[in-house]
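FAQ: What does a ligand-bound record look like?

Like this one, built around iron/sulfur cluster:
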Amino acid sequence: MSDRAPTPVLPLASPSSAAFAAPAGGVWRDVAASDWQDWRWQLRNRLRTADELAQHFVIPPELRAFLEAGHGFEVAITPFFASLCRPFDPTCPLARQVLPDVAEATVRSFERADPLGEDPYRKAPGIVHKYPDRVLFLVTDTCAAYCRYCTRARWVASGADSLGSAEQEAALAYIEQTPTIRDVLISGGDPLLLSSPKLNALLDRLAQIPHLRFLRIGTRVPVFLPMRIDAELVHALRPRRIPVYLNVHCNHFAELAEPVRDALARLADGGVSLGGQTVLLRGVNDTAPVLQETFYALLSARVRPYYLFHCDPIRGSAHLRTSVDEGLDLMRQLIGHTSGMAVPKYVIDLEGGGKIPLWPDFVEQMDRNVLHVTNFRGERWQYVNHAD
Ligand code: SF4
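The answer part, i.e. the structure of the complex:
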């Protein structure tokens, strides 16, 4: 473990407002601003094949062969997100999250298609009921772009698409008939790719279930496709009898370009409560300065960092995964050096066993009335326990 403070924070990437028009150079130079700002145009024009990726990124021959063999997880990158990547830099922390790597072909013995062991807990179409008081509700298999470390790669982009009306009714019936459920986490895929009327109707139905206390939605759309955050969608996400919390997946401060920050502001101004979810990824955010700046940038964008997930052992993801020791060391470098509000919970997720929060151990020894502790500067202190 290290008691080093993070080195001074890195400057936030500062894309200009021109970032909301197509980049002046490169493959999208002739795209009209009205198309670039149209989320449906962005989805239609995602980079998916080796040839399409090669229009923007450098694709080495071995990666082209890997892509053309077609064995890997689905590939799609919105032009907007691609435009934030450094196309000629294989170490770009944004490209590394969405651009396939031949290392994906190497599957370790402990890696799993279902690393969280969710499938045995499927109770109804789209419903995973693992914890006593809450369910996961997978409403679509579609995302704006596909993350190479996706925990639900076995389900995402599987062609299942969104739940049909009969399946959705069966899922809602399960929630209605299970009064121990307090909280529904709507995920996928990305729920914000449902049409706004469909999402609105789903949230209306859920809000009418009397034993539910709040709803949560997990999304990466504000980062991959900020133009999707329009007035109709913000209205659909409004609080009802119960609040709706939106947890935005963001891994690096450079993802928070101006159009993304504007989209988050539209959500916050519309009364949507925002939390942040970050996955710890090798070569993306596995240094204390990058994590610190990412969490500060999220808070500045009105998103409260909530979870730092240890990267799950999904098949072919070893090149993106750190060790838990490294994760704890990073947390030790953040705690005390970073506003408490900007330090999320670091969690591992057991296969079938649920989440375990991990926290560096600051207690060296506990005598009857005295705690021997190490503070954030690495100094040893004693704390007298005045309980009696
Ligand atoms: S946005 Fe979420 S569900 Fe979609 S590919 Fe990325 S991690 Fe998986």
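Follow-up question: can I read anything off the structure? Yes, for example: Residues 288-300 form the longest helix (13 residues).
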